[in-house]
Amino acid sequence: MTKISILGCGWLGFPLAKKLIENGNSVKGSTTSKNKLSILEIAGINPFLVTIEADGVSENIDTFLAESEILIIDIPPKLRGNQDISTTLEMTFVRKIQNLIPFMEKSSVSKVLFVSSTSVYGDDNELITEETIANPETESGRQLLLAEKILQNNPNFETTILRFGGLIGEDRHPVKFLAGKENLENPDAPVNLIHQNDCISIIEEIIKQSKWNEVFNAAAPFHPTREEYYTQKAKEQNLVLPKFSFEMSNIKKVISSEKIETILNYKFDLKEY
């Protein structure tokens, strides 16, 4: 039995925790909501109220990390726009990770899985692999990349970075936000999506196969154009069809998951897409 702490039991972390428990692991899970503590406990997760801010970490962080071998960090930056990073750094995501590090260093944690995003690559028109130089164009992408480096460069634990494409699931799909909208950009851009079930299965395999000190891109090998895919999904869900503008059509970014398919011998469940 492996003891695992999941920092952030939200949309992905909560079902992930339940799956890891099914596999015989002991799981501690954190939330920032007191109301969710009982929900975690009912699911068999050892619940903790943990807040990480730019100016500090809640007191029970030590107990949350105690005795765990693996820490999964799944907290989104929640940043928007292109602010000047020099003025926002001390107030945001990177600072939170920096505040967490000392507690990790003195804990039993020896393995870290950091949930990141393919947004660290920007929108270059090419096939993106793990060897592609990261070139984030958004503030959240920039701070995710900085957080990755902070964790990777720390010798106290082995860190694997998992960069997910666009997240989808039964209760989460971009078409619901795009339905009925007009003049949508980049109709010819390939989609780079990953289903919640694949996210969970990939994390399971990383832990099971002990693949640490790695970087993995994770997007399904399924890349129809935005126009094709979202038009079809809108039809399937009886939504108003989105309308695209071909005046802004220049992104050809495709995320390759060949490394995951090869190293982990992983097969995506394409029927979910």
Descriptive report:
By secondary structure, the protein is an alpha/beta fold. It has one domain: NAD(P)-binding Rossmann-like Domain (Rossmann fold). It has 10 helices and 13 strands. The strands form 4 sheets. A 7-stranded parallel sheet has the order 3-2-1-6-7-9-12, sandwiched between helices. A hairpin with a 2-residue loop joins β4 and β5. α5 runs parallel beside α6. The two termini are 33 Å apart. About 4% of the residues have low confidence.
Describe what is shown at a glance:
Helix content is 32%, strand content 19%. The chain is of the alpha/beta class and 273 residues long. Helix 5 (93-105) packs parallel to helix 6 (139-152).
Chain-wise SSE layout:
Blueprint: E1 3-7, H1 13-22, E2 26-31, H2 37-42, E3 46-49, E4 52-53, E5 56-57, H3 61-65, E6 70-73, H4 85-88, H5 93-105, E7 111-117, E8 127-128, H6 139-152, E9 158-164, E10 166-168, H7 175-178, E11 193-195, H8 196-208, E12 215-218, H9 226-236, E13 254-255, H10 258-263
Helix pairs in contact: 5-6
